[in-house]
Amino acid sequence: MTNSRKITLVGGVLLFVVLLVWLFSSSDENESPEGKGRQVFTSSDWKPRYKPFDKNPRGTYIFHKLVQTHIKKKDMYMVERYRHLDSILRKDNQRRTYFFVGNKFALKNSEIDSIMSKVQNGSDIFFSFEQITDNVLDRFFDTVYFRADYAEEELVYTSRAKYKLMEFFQKDTVATYWNAFGQIVPKGDAKALSTFMEMENFLVIKMGKGKVFLHTNPNMFYNYQLKRNDGFRHARFVIDQLSDKKDVVLLELGRLPDDFDEDEEKEDGDGSGKKGGKQDNSLLRWLLERPMLRNALLLLIGGLLLYVIFRSQRKRPAVPYYPKKKNMTLAFTETITSIYYAKQNHYGMLQVQRRNFYATILKHYFVDLNRREGDREIRILAEKSNKPFDEIKSLVNKFETKEVSRVNDQTIIEMAKLQQSFYKHMGIITDKIDQRIKKREMVFRRGLLLPTLLILFGVIGILCGFYFLVNSIGPGIALWPVGAALVTLGVLRMVNPYLKVTEKHLITYSEFGRKRTYLREEVISTKSTKSGVVIQLRNNKKIVINYWDMSRFDREQFDRFISKVHTLDL
Fold first, then answer.
1. 8, 38, 90, 497: least CB-packed within 10 angstroms?
2. What DSSP letter does each residue of 546-567 carry, written as one string?
3. Under CATH, what is the fold of the domain 61-260?
């Protein structure tokens, strides 16, 4: 199989796989009620958490959209830098709701003090957190301790109703910590708005003219949580406690990553996680925090130093190496043979043999048989080569025959033998080259149709099996191993040849790649049938070659090999 055919086959398989992936990925598209085919967002990415407008399962897109709906015509700002917050705080005395839902929260003392001054004048704060720094809690409590319940679900009680909330991860319920307030001493009038297990998890504290809302379970506002009826009604209850007449400011500048360690990063007593008032987000810090990347960077630097040290030394110029020219005689012969087998032009092959013979004579004896006048050049060649005139004359006449219809396979074989015999006699072909010709291997391969189908159906089986497993469909557990077996069988049939003929052996390969070797001297006879060829060996052994399992080109080559067996030229 040529390289172009291999590339075409691999490209076709890859294109087919991409098409299948596209078909499977497009199967989740739903049409809108208006029939416009609007694509619905779906995701199985459970890693991002609490991002305000993230549509993934553990984002808070729905919750923040409900907040936007609640405040009606009011605005919602997202603040990610202190200068933005400072501009809002200095802008005017408008009352706002400062809002945060996330895992870890921290602000510098100056930042939280600026916000609390606005709360005293009528603004509100809403925090839903898992962890919050002490310098922020100190603004709301004189004493505060937290408690937790480890469970898969909780019943949350409010003045309106009770709601059953559950913790999921990748569509399975999992146990988690449901945080709540334990012993607290607030700095203002406090009221519990919701509880579970007789523990308060949602408080409102009156501070000056404003209110502080503290909620200890942000996981109750996940997107997947709000798609359930209880989760949606619970979120509506929480949002209804907020004023609908105030702008909402999202305090994203206080969000800390999940892997943030307060004890290591705390500086100046503000718990902000910023060293020297600035947070280091450089790429170098990201590399140095990971041991494997850090070691790789150090090895790279060390290798560069060694390269500079040793390559900086003076070197003598290298003496250019001129390799010997490669003998392409055998490659040229194989190319001509392949063209002959493909075109099936016997007379054309004879003309190629004639041109090669005349070119060889001109190269070695300086006699141009193409421009001869009578028999003069032939007599000169006979004198130089010490070959009989009649023998050379007969060989030339056979090369220049005009009876096209009488030229067949047997003629080509006979002329090749005469030509080779002449070259050997004159020393043009040495014993070394003759041995190389005899040692040339013939390889017959299977057809590409069946292995291609096996690979395609195997890939389909693997993809369908994985698709069924993802969707918890039973047959998927058995479908993908069958697909893998089909792909393996197809690859083995494509990679391994059907039959290989060497100087002394006949080597066959089964469909599963099993190799069997026979001696060529053990061949007794061959029998051709409509479906293939049976090669009879000694000790009642035989090799059965099926035509249907071979490519067309290899089958034609194999027919000629068998014809040589019949003429005892094996």
1. 90
2. EGGGB-HHHHHHHHHHHHHHHT
3. Rossmann fold (3.40.50)
Among residues 221, 227, 223, 222, which one has the least CA distance to residue 202?
221
40 or 239: which leads in pLDDT: 239
| pLDDT for 309 | 73
Q: Which fold has domain 443-566?
A: PH-domain like (2.30.29)
Contact predicate 190/184, CB 8 Å: yes
Distance separating the N- and C-terminal Cα atoms of the chain: 24
Phi, psi of 52 (to 5 degrees): -55, -40
Say how far apart CA 481 and CA 487 lie, in whole Å.
Answer: 10
Residue 543: enclosing H or E segment and its boundaries?
Answer: strand 542-546
Contact 519, 484 (CB under 8 A): no
Residue 72 zone, left/alpha/beta (φ > 0; ψ -120 to 50; rest): left
CA 349, 355, 358, 360 torsion-angle sign? negative
**Distance of alpha carbon 546 from the chain centroid:** 38
Over residues 115-141, the pLDDT tens digits come to 999 999 999 999 999 999 999 999 999
Q: Return d(Cα 92, Cα 112) in angstroms, integer.
A: 18
Single-letter amino acid, residue 297: L
CB atoms within 10 A of CB 242: 19
Torsion of CA 481, 482, 488, 492, to 10 degrees: 150
Q: Please give the structure tokens belonging to residue 459.
A: 């890939």
Of all helices (H) and strands (E), which one includes residue 20? helix 3-25
Do the first three CATH levels of 61-260 and 443-566 match, i.e. the same topology? no
Cα dihedral value 237, 239, 243, 244, nearest 10: -110
Q: Place 30 in a pLDDT band, splitting at 50, 70 and 90.
A: very low
The 3-state DSSP class for residue 19 equals: helix
pLDDT band for position 72 (cuts 50, 70, 90): confident
Q: Which residue is it, tokens 């609490």? A: 50
pLDDT of residue 219 exceeding 90, the answer is yes
Q: How far apart are CA 503 and CA 520, in angstroms?
A: 8
Q: What is the pTM of this model?
A: 0.43
- The answer to whether residue 200 scores a pLDDT higher than 90 is yes
- Sign of the C-alpha dihedral computed for residues 213, 218, 223 and 228 taken in this order: negative
Task: Tell me the C-alpha distance between 242 and 236, whole Å.
Answer: 10
Count other Cβ atoms within 10 Å, centred on residue 502. Answer: 15
For residue 500, CA distances in Å to 87, 523, 556 come to: 82, 15, 15
* Contact in structure between 127 and 214 (CB atoms under 8 Å): yes
